[in-house]
Amino acid sequence: MKKINWLWAHRRNSSLHHMSLLIRGLHNNGFSPIVNFYLKNQIVIGNKKGCYIFYDKNELNQKCKDIQTNIENNSNFCEDFRKKNDEIFDNLFLVCDKIKQTNLNKASYNELISLAKKFKDKITAGPLITVQLWGIEACWDDEYILSKEIKDKTTTEFEKIKGDLSQSTGKSVAFSERESFLNILNEMINNNPQIDSLILKHVNQFEWINSEYISKKLTFEQWKDLFSKETNIDASKELDNLRQTRKEAINIRNEVIKNLNLSPKAIHILNALNEFVAQRDWAKGKFCYALSIYDLLMQELGKRNKYDKNIFYYDIDEILERQSIGNRENFAIVSKFGDIKIYESDAVDEIIRKEKIGEIFSKITREREFKGVIANKGKITGNVRVIDNAKEIPYFKDGEIIVTYMTTMEFTPIFKKAKGIITDEGGLSSHAAIIAREFSLPCIVGTKIATRTLKTGDLVELDANSGKITILNI
What we know:
By secondary structure, this protein is of the alpha+beta class. It has helices at 16-26, 57-72, 77-101, 109-123, 131-139, 145-153, 158-165, 173-189, 195-206, 220-228, 235-260, 264-305, 316-320, 345-355, 431-439, 450-453, and strands at 6-12, 42-47, 50-56, 331-336, 339-343, 369-371, 373-376, 379-387, 401-404, 420-423, 443-445, 459-463, 468-471.
């Protein structure tokens, strides 16, 4: 069998069950004929810190080239991709609506299984939240038209221009939620008698932002408490500042485009990039919303089957076939050439050794200084809070620096409190980078080692002008 050159790409707060759905979706070409993107080879290693996701480097490189071809050959790419993205999620939401309308406690076992099969079919139609990410990477390939033309046209720092052009012209989920939050907060401060209905409207629109893959959604009372805790701020002023920061970032983007005088081909690719960036953020939100509905169904199935273990330790097919499993506190999901195998705790170390993917799990020497990719400039000093798990988010304090593997939807409530952001993974179009520019936060991404080097409480200098982090208390 052909040897695979594995590339570590992500770490996510997830479960075996949700990862098995993601892998099945990666196998399917649901975005065809607009984007020819699917991946048959992946490994997911799950442990107490989350899920570590590896791709076949050669397969991924080829698929990025396929995306480039799709963009170049379709003059209407952006609109076609948007329509296909909406179509896939609309089909998924039809099943979600059916689950919501069903009294799960009273439904028959066969009805529950039928709903689970329908959900599986729609959420695995294609790489719902992956094609956008690698579409961004494809657009910024160093050897591709956009990057080469920019480098040819200017002697200015390429990475700075790359960051400016990666600013989405659409509003991110975090920005939209904060904008809505501050508008409602204004109404609360002004004693609007309809405040509960306004908060409820906000909750219905953004209830999934803190759920990610496995976290619980906030209740209405918890949302109301979040509003009450901020009644002492000047909501109007913060709202103006928020909008102004985003406006300035978009103005800079537009000015850079104007000054570069890019060719029609490069502009076409830049428009595709903008579409991928915008759709990436909202697709992740829609995906998390769908899982928050689906999880209610899974929990009911767990009760009916009287599983002796967490139902989210099971693959979807194991649940449908009512199989039993062993110890999966740690696990490995290995997909090679489309064939999925699941390994339990006692086999995980052997998989890591055999596939030669152990480097990311190794301990490292604590470094006083290390570097990453500049996502948004600025220089600050402050204490860090290392967030390895979503359960640690509520402990985040005003003025701290977020240190994490990668920001996700769950981080939305704390961006307004943060002084800066440092991540292990990601690039200039990553979630953390986009949020940093919208919230005007100094940010360094792609350090690879931040969560393994820094400790909560460390006093650091985050120099996002040079891309360097320095620990000041050692």
